[in-house]
Amino acid sequence: MKSFKFHIVLILTVLICSLTPVLSSAQHIADSSKKVNVISQKKFKRQMNKENVVILDVRTPEEYNSGNIPGSILINYKDSTFAKQVNALDKNKHYLVYCKSGNRSNKATQYMLSNGFKRVDQLENGYAKWEKSSGKSSN
């Protein structure tokens, strides 16, 4: 009888845990209703060297070290401290955000817009396309 009760409790615990989504702090807080401004590579390049512009790479350190857009800073979207690191940034600067293909940068951009950042743009098609078309990277 004790074994039966134990198994019921175990099954219920597993069921409840499986129904609870596990999200990073940034994913949990991000407001998907915010419209992300996706900009072309051409526009991204024009914006890069302007005053108050910060180029933000949200890929992993390994991806960043294998090549990145010159002048970019790394804040890994998958890192548990992503939200803390982003919230320490100046919310009044203009951020150009990119990842490998656009998925993580879209989520990061949504998070930033939802948390009071005034101007955040996402690179269309990410670093993979950037590297193919421009061939310019920094290692």
From TrEMBL:
SUPFAM superfamilies: Rhodanese/Cell cycle control phosphatase (SSF52821). Keywords: Signal. Residues 1-26 form the signal peptide. It comes from the Bacteria. Residues 49-139 form the Rhodanese domain. This is Rhodanese-like domain-containing protein.
